[in-house]
Structures are given as structure tokens and as C-alpha cells.
Amino acid sequence: MRSFGYYWKEGFRNIFKHGFMSIAAIAIMLASLLMTGTVTLIAYNIDRSIVELQQSSEIVVFIDETLTTREAKALSSRFDRIENIATIKFESRDEALEAYRLELGEDASILDGFTSQNNPLRNSFHFTLEDPTLAEQTLEQIAAVDGVARVRADEDTIAKLVQVQRVFNIVSLAMVVAL
């Protein structure tokens, strides 16, 4: 117990005996900790933002117009079997027309001639993916389902986000290790 007190006493005595070196050591430690913490926080926030962007990127699947709304909804069970799909939302032709009217706002009058009988829009499904890195394989599986007319996805955007995330993780890890 006495030796513990001795170390504390000697430590405080040497801090004041070698003041400049003590201040320099404390300043360097403080600067290193601040830089490491800042880089880590920035890396974490950017990584979370990229993940949110990847998860919010939506795949829209347009259904063949020869299928009725009921037949189109029935395709949902086939899409449920595809593993990488996080959420599935069906949008009927009429819902799509109303959403388009709302999106146009003041210019919605250009759609006044369209009703549920002459609606040019198609039934569709909106998907989000669990793992954006597997987007290409998932899109192939979705396109292979009978009744799918067209798949719209921002594959390039998803691929670039995945690439940016990988590069940024490597860069931030190197910065933390270097500091």
C-alpha cells in the first residue's frame, strides 16, 4: 500500500519537475485522442448514411398488363420466396394514377381524361433489399417470375454506393490505425 502512494507522489513531483515535457505529452495524447475520435465518428456517420441510402433505394417491378389486379397481387407469394427482399409493397393501377396526380400537384389536370377504365399505368410492386450487394442476383430472380413485364432499379447507383462504402471503410480504418 505504501508503494502505491510512493508512485503517485513521484508522478506528481515529476510532472512539475519536467513541466514542458509533461505538457507536451498531455497535448500530444489529447490531440491523438481527439483526432481518432473525430475520424471514428465521421466514419460511423458516413457508413450509416450510406446504409440508409442503400436500404431506401427502391426496385419497381411492373406487371404485365394482361394480368388483372387480382392476378398481379397473387404474384406476391412468388416474390416472398426470393430471399434478399426486405419489403414488398403492391401498388394497383388506380393507386399509381392517384399517386401520380398528387405528384403533379397543380398540373394534375393533364390526367383528367384518365379513369380506371382507360388507365395507362400498370400494376406494380415496390421492393427494398436486405443486402444491396446482392442486387444483381435478386433482380435476375425477380425478372424470371412469370408476369413481370419490366424491372426498374438503379443498379449503377446501388453498385456505386457499395463501392463507396467499401473504400471509405478502408480509408477510415487506415486513418484510425495511423493515428
Gap between N and C termini, in Å? 37 Å
Largest sheet: 4 strands, antiparallel
Q: What is the beta-strand fraction?
A: 5-15%
CATH architecture of the domain at 57-154: 2-Layer Sandwich
Top CATH class of the domain at 57-154:
Alpha Beta
Structure description:
The protein has 179 residues and is an alpha+beta fold. The chain has a domain at 57-154: 2-Layer Sandwich (Alpha-Beta Plaits), CATH 3.30.70.3040. 61% of the residues lie in helices and 13% in strands. It has seven helices and four strands. The longest helix has 38 residues, at 19-56.
In short:
The chain is an alpha+beta fold and 179 residues long. The chain is built from seven helices and four strands.
Features:
179 residues; 7 helices; 61% helix; Alpha-Beta Plaits; alpha+beta
Write the layout of secondary structure elements.
Layout: H1 2-17, H2 19-56, E1 59-63, H3 69-74, H4 76-80, E2 85-91, H5 93-104, E3 124-129, H6 135-143, E4 148-152, H7 155-178
Antiparallel strand pairs: 1-3, 1-4, 2-3
Helix pairs in contact: 1-2, 2-7
